[in-house]
Here is the input.
Amino acid sequence: MPMIILLFALHTEAASKNRFSGKKSEAVQLWLTSPSSNVLFQKQQNKIYFQKTRGLSSPVIDIDSGQEFQSMDGFGNCLTDGSAMLLNKMSPGSRKKILNELFATDAKNIGISYLRISLGASDLSEKPFTYNDLPAGETDFDLKKFSLDENRKDLIPVLHEILKINPAIKILSSPWSAPTWMKTNNEFKGGSLKKECYDVYARYFVRYIWEMRSEGIDIDAITIQNEPLHPGNVPSLYMPAEEQALFIRQNLGPALASAELKTKIIVYDHNADKIIYPLTILRDPEAARFVDGSAFHLYGGKIEALSDVHAEFPGKNLYFTEQWIGAPGNLATDLVWHTRTLIIGATRNWCRNVLEWNMASDPENYPHTIGGCDRCLGTITINGDSIKRNPAYYILAHAAKFVRPGSVRIASGIPDNLPNVAFKTVEGRIVLIVVNDAKESKEFSVRFNGKAFQAKLEQGAVGTFTW
Here is the structure.
């Protein structure tokens, strides 16, 4: 469903004197998106100031920076192999321009700070592949034929350009399938990991992390399997919780430790309606000791279920790693739903990141595998050197640009129809993201440290305040 960005129709200083008194302080900055007014992530020039309050009649969002919750790793995208292919086909100048817009934080650039990539092909690759594909009947338990050559065509060159813009960007990698010779059905679609291949598959992960590091790309974290309960995708692999726990406990955890790799292991990577999956692994102490946390999508279930995982295992982290927007997209609805449910909802339910699905597609939603997603709308649409910015672009912009890695979520009240989330940055600035999901404009006040400012949001608008 589409996301809506809050449009804050701000009162001038003179108009607000009947509610506020006192000297003006530092101006509050406001960036707005409002589909109804065709305002698309624009910095507002109207001056907003905190002033001493005499009494507030409008709904109030109270901010308490003394209550701190999880630290943030970032907001971003899934840079699929197909996205990288489209970017790599652009002219160097055009590609540099759009990558700077996506990953830099100055001017109007939106500052993506976290990426998920596929370990091998995803369903948004041009074709299925792994790093150890062999003719039928052959095996390679020594991984002598392991090769990153498919990624060297597009993904690795694009990552090198991104790292020049943001060398500190965090990268999570997820496999859609093990090599087919390691699977019970010897096919890219479905099947399970053969028990006799658990050890070689663990070494496959280790080899991948080292090979990417030799390319100058540090893999901060891995998930064991994208959507392990969905074996119908191309590619895919079925891996129930008990098998994932066994693989981590016996093979992958010890293999990473033996290689002295600090890459995080994140489990599950599927929908919020089956939280018993990550809980099963986290309840296994021998597996859990290797696990950093759990990852979620929201094609099923409710975002609030993630807090149940946090409540049982508060020492383990939570991540939100994928949500698509179906083509052709609808900014008015996508903006509101994704901002309210993910940017606000996932972070208020303890997630350290929020990732929208594919970064880029072409006007026909290619590339994808035969049987892969044919309606996945990119954050941007690439047509040669021309760029179209889609709903996910504006959804991410309102968080990624301002809530930089290391920011901490802080407490904020939620008046009716004004879902919001607040953060304190490393520099000590406050960031407040608000959505008006009412059916009419809403006036409200923001109160912090005994002072307040007033704002008015159009229906379906999103606003990011910083001070």
User: Anything to note?
Assistant: Residues 1-23 have pLDDT under 50 and may be disordered. The CA atoms of residues 131 and 147 lie 5 Å apart. Residues 73-405 form a domain with the TIM Barrel fold (CATH 3.20.20.80). The two ends are 31 Å apart (CA to CA).
